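Researcher: Good morning. I'm working through a list of sequences from a screen, and I'd like to move beyond sequence-only analysis. For each chain I'm collecting a predicted structure so we can compare shapes side by side. This is the next one on the list. No need for commentary yet; just the structure.
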Amino acid sequence: MKLKLIIAFLCICSLIIFQPAIAQEKERQTYKMDEVVVTATQTENTVLETPSNISVINAADLEAMDAKNIAEAIKKIPGVYYTNASGLSPKISMRGARVGMGGGALVLVNGVPMNMGEFGYTDFESIPVENIERIEVVKGPMSALYGGDSARGVINIITKRSGETINGKISAIGGSYNDQRYSALIYGTRDKFDYNLNFKKREQDGYRDDTSLDNYYFNGEIGYWLSEATRIGAYLNVADQERMLAKKLTKEQRDEDPKQATDYSETENTDIISGLNFETKKEAFDFKITLYYKNRDKEYENYLNATSKPYKKDLDEDVYGVRSIITCKQAVFNKKNRLSFGFDYDCDKSDLKTVKAASKTPGAPYTVPDPKKTGDFTRQELGVFLQEELSLLDNLTLTAGLRYDYFEFDNDAEYDFTQDGKYDYDTKPDYDKWNPRVSLNYRPLDNLSVYGSYCRSYRAPNIYDYYASGSYSSKNAYTLEPETFTQYETGIRYAFAQWLNIDTSVFRIEIEDMLDSAYDENGKYMGKQNISEAAIKGFELALLGAPVDWFSYKIAYTYTDARYADDILAKPDKTRTVNINNNRLTKIPFNRLNIDLDARLYRCKGYELLWHVDLMAQSEYQMDKTNTDCYSGYALVNTKLRLEHKSYEAFVAVDNVLDKDYDGYAYRSYGKNYYYPAAGTTVSAGMAYKF
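Model: Good morning. Structure tokens for this chain:
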């Protein structure tokens, strides 16, 4: 009821409070909200014309902060929650919808999907921030356009291009814990060609003892313009990574020494992601198609100190697919109209081998096969979609879309889950889903828009879900099915003046058939099943502007209330089970606030001294599903001082200025709390040459 009242209040405010100011507001200039974006509809619209939430981070925003990866930039957006258990491998959740071991939002770079692996994660470290022109983020379900991997949102990344012959930047950064970052970027145009090439080396020791990462990256794109309206481009991203990450600590271990590590995991992987784009823009239609191929060669060793049974995984993954869309731009009754349709296909083939150590001894050889987690696993998805964008009035646009997806799995594990026919186990489950979307965008003023939307999406189980639950699935006679996400959203955008822009929204997400751990009334574990329901509702507010030419600000506030919405059993300890209906979901605080301030302190003879300060504060969150204990809220302050010249740049940055003692991740399991401590104050400094 409260959420409905808020929605009604926002709509009434837009039509009544702002209406008397129509004449004067039409003359005012928008700030930021006239940017052209494409992610929410796969067609070009300004932010004010977009019929859903959308946030934009541009190259200037990335320059201002000392973001080591794109997750550190995206976490500043309203509705985004950030965790970094190891300090070296970040994860994000948008609107609290990333639950369990499933992947998060769909991440695209120049149209190529980056999600990979048995969980469908995106490695945010593998996308160098130095080469990014713009990041567009849409929170909430987007399956009506992008398929099942987008049920938790879409992050669309566009790399840099230039109309000049040559641009580039060479940089070196050093800092606390052996933080070393070296990057070389060159991009520009020559005749009918455009190019973009970036090489990066990143090395760092973690806050925890004997943890580290040692990564090399190359990414780039070469394009050829067949005409002024038609371009073909080839994209390549190569990441070679080594990571040694620390495991959890108990409260006693953390109090004794938060830097210690009782055990480790080690990962070595090489990812190759390639894509071929063709795009043409005509007066009557636009057409775009992307072909892609991805390969991952990964070796993962867990529990090297043998606090649990050590094991090793070898993964060889091949993914190929196509994404396409054609948009017809034919007016209807002299009103703007765009009809889009397209299809996507994705095939993921993974060869997984898991071997356990011979004993619970550090350094013991891996000689015991694990057939349940070994085999050939294939996932195929075919989707077709249709979307209509029709201007009902000059200032009222209806967007309606429908997508059909067919999923097929082939889980060919070496283990016989039927046990010679004793149990019924489906090795080749398949599903189909219809995903609708309807939204309205109304602009009573040139600088004011109101939107409302409804959409339904799904997330199919991943490879890990199937093999991890195989024995339970066969013995308890169930087959994992997709989760369903339904979102209701309304929002207001108001470009009042250059010094004040307002972007606010309220939403409700309902998750059905959520994959979760199942227990019977006696506390016996029954595997992961489609047993849960959840309701997530929230309010998001973004304020930004530049009151004077030397100062700008961004304020992002989020309120989220995420709860289980059905009778579900969970275990607060090893002996009891409790009903968690109406309990809060874990790791989602009620309140989160980000404030970014940017000031120009000095300008003379081509030099500028720029100062950036950001504050992040969040309230407490629940550490387990039974809501037995909370992790306290905290606040962090970071700053960066940068000397800028058209040819040179130097900076010094300090993270966690107040040396706050906190954890990148914390949780509770069977009555005990576990922690992943984060670093205190860290310092970095760098120099760059630009041309």
